[in-house]
Design brief:
This protein is α/β, with parallel strands linked by helices and about 240 residues long. It contains 4 helices and 13 strands. The protein binds flavin-adenine dinucleotide.
């Protein structure tokens, strides 16, 4: 595993009921409030989850990379970036540390009739892209474009006989998604191609506009999601 992507295994008997049907689904990870060790389950006030003292709980969204219903285990790959609560927790987590999982959220339903696929994203999308790749038919061409802020975030992708994979190093002062956007703009998109992209919210918004407005790609052929938002805690779509 890469030092920028930490793989953690979560266990517990309740994971028996976690069934993930499609690739690129999501789960929500509840962590102890920063600076504490105790996991307090928040309650829903009709609008948001809150801790008993009114503070917001630490809940973040991740891709359920692998679920093993026999051992009641779930694996998450968590990106190590500067200053996030989950990112910091992942770097120092020890066996037995408490955390809770809820979900799953909807994944990506692959259109089996699609002639080709384009998958793009940043580090946070690597687990989802890997899962989609594994689920794609071997006879469909698939291009993968991944932007990494640190070269050591690169990990081996699953094999696919018709895969073309490109990795892009984000230059030090560039905005997240700049090289991904350039890759989408330069891409040769086959007629009928299905597009799946996830990354920083503003970057994927540019990508959406380019695909739908400049290229006229039908919205039904694309899934483009903000996975995090620059300068804001939580994920980009607030989903
Ligand atoms: C459906 C879905 C699936 C996801 N799957 C994964 C996954 O498998 N693995 C994964 O690591 N993330 C995944 N994410 C993204 C993850 O939820 C966010 O990156 C989240 O903000 C991380 O929480 P944090 O506590 O580390 O940082 P936060 O406390 O949320 O944010 C603190 C600061 O860090 C910045 N920040 C957050 N994420 C990043 C980043 N990746 N790079 C640089 N700066 C960042 C924020 O803009 C903010 O300024 C997914 C999101 C969604 C919606």
């Amino acid at each position: 595993m890469s030092p920028r992507l930490v793989r953690l295994t979560f266990g517990g008997p309740d994971l028996e009921s976690l069934t993930v049907e499609h690739p690129a689904a999501s789960v929500r990870l509840l962590l102890p409030y920063p600076g504490t060790q105790e996991l307090i389950v928040p309650s829903w006030n009709g609008n948001e989850f809150l801790l008993p003292d009114g503070r917001r709980p630490t809940i973040r969204t991740f891709t359920p990379r692998r679920v093993n219903p026999e051992t009641f285990e779930l694996e998450l790959d968590i990106v190590i970036h500067g200053g996030g609560v989950a990112s910091e927790w992942a770097q120092t987590a020890e066996p037995g540390d408490p955390a809770a999982i809820s979900g799953p959220g909807r994944g990506y339903a692959i259109d089996r009739d699609a002639p080709a696929f384009f998958l793009g994203g940043d580090e946070t999308a690597i687990p989802a892209i890997s899962q989609i790749l594994k689920a794609l038919s071997a006879d469909r061409p698939v291009q993968v474009h991944i932007e990494v802020a640190h070269p050591d975030a690169r990990i081996a992708l699953p094999d696919h006989p018709r895969l073309t994979a490109e990795w892009y190093d984000l230059p030090p002062h560039a905005s997240s998604g700049d090289t991904l956007f350039a890759a989408v703009r330069a891409a040769d998109l086959e007629p009928g191609v299905r597009v799946w992209v996830a990354g920083e919210a503003a970057a994927v918004q540019r990508i959406r506009r380019h695909l739908f407005e400049d290229r006229g790609l039908p919205r039904s052929r694309a899934s483009v999601r903000g996975y995090w938002k620059h300068g804001r805690r939580g994920n980009g779509d607030d989903a």
